[in-house]
Amino acid sequence: xxxxxxxxxxxxxxxxxLLLLLPLVAASLRYxxxxxxxxxxxxxxxxxxxxxxxxxxxxxxxxxxGSNVIVLNDDxxxxxxxxxxxLPAAGITEKKLSFNVTGGxxxxxxxxxxxxxxxYSLPRTIGARMFYFFFESRSSVNKSxxxxxxxxxxxxxxxxSLALFYENGPFHITDSLGLQWNDYGWDQASNILFVDQPxxxxxxxxxSESDIRRNETGVSNDLYDFLQEFFKGHPQFVNNDFYxxxxxxxxxxxxxxxxxxxxxxKNNEGIHINLKGFAIGNGLTDPEIQYRAYPEFALATQLxxxxxxxxxxxxVPTCQSSIKACGSKGGKACTDAxxxxxDIFNQLMNLVGSINYYDVRKQCEGSLxxxxxxxxxxxxxxxxxxxxxxxGIDFVSCSDDIHQAMIGDYMLDYELGIPELLENGIKxxxxxxEYDLIxxxxxxxxxxxxxxxxxxxQFDGASTVAFMVGSAKAGELKGYGPLHFLKVYNAGHMVxxxxxxxxxxxxxxxxxxxxxxx
Length: 518
Hints:
Blueprint: E1 10-14, H1 16-28, E2 115-121, E3 129-135, E4 148-152, H2 161-168, E5 171-173, E6 179-181, E7 191-195, H3 216-233, E8 242-247, H4 250-266, E9 275-281, H5 287-300, H6 306-313, H7 316-329, H8 332-352, H9 373-380, H10 382-387, H11 400-405, H12 407-410, H13 418-423, E10 427-433, H14 441-450, H15 456-461, E11 465-469, E12 472-480, E13 483-488, H16 495-498, H17 500-511
Helix pairs in contact: 3-4, 5-6, 5-7, 5-8, 5-14, 7-8
């Protein structure tokens, strides 16, 4: 078996090479016809319709692919790689080239923007390398001081490239597999990282099964180590404000990572990361409270009858008691809790049929909910892979192996670590699209209000006010001190995809401290 040194190394290659190759890629890839035409939203971008490849139960629960665990030179050799030479190299020269992207870039010219892709090896692993895309800010105002934001997609086990290309990255993928500027990309307000994690997800890989993580301790340590290496490679951003963001199962990842950064800073473990806050979108954070909300939310949105509600409610006590057992015993008790609580959701879905559980206004057509096939096609093309330095590594959009490995983590409560962060001035934003079922706003509202911290009484008593974007009422906002909750109108599970302008304004106003704090 071949393995790599645990000393950190960075593979950095210009993301723009990918863009230069797009005309060739579009011509060479077979793009299957969709069942329906893509639906365009008001700003002209192709939005998530009901036509697609089911990568998302994916974004939150049941991904369908393996993981990138690569074993060489033994009886179980991975047939994708013929030799050690097919693995990504230790260093590729960073280049800045001009390229063509349709639409207006906003801010500075394309040639002046820093777009990178690469790997960092992780010192606590045997042979793991974590893949990332990094985009310097498009903002022309105080660009060098713009915050650094990391985005984590959920799963567990889904690539952050899904969010990059369909939600809040600099670009969207067009029907012809070209790239179009996203006028509401979060790089308008920040220097943003999209990281494939846990190891085995996306283009991140390892040469040892022992590097596959099964809990947030391992996941957060890997991310902390990644950030240490990232800031060594990009020291000009060390003093910038830092924010952790993400959605769905990132409701577990984000509090764990924020706590890990806080602890690392407190103990002077390495480079001080200037953590200012974290934001969770439609997350799963406190399963006991959130699973209890399924019957209530479904009844309130008229998805089920009162009789259906009462039947589902009978399943809640078993879910709650098994979650308590998971918290005290761990191990098999956590696996049991997972299946006991999932029974609530599965029986609910039996009642509502083919509804899109990420947006109850829509239907899943057959087994399809959203079309994320373009990113799989783009990042599976060999010429694109070579241009971003991943060579023989397969793109794993969502990994069922990683999902299975993390089942014991699923029903743990990650609200528990948040109060300490609030008490130390770390800003917390919990936001949720109003039409998501699977990580619905009501369950998130309930756990935020139940959280015990010094400002709980004041937060509970705070008024709910309109969140305005321009002259339009875009949501309902409640806040006290460092804690805010935002219910976003006309959005499902993926707020930056459904309401891109609102999501960018939310991010900017929150980071700038003008989100309506009391």
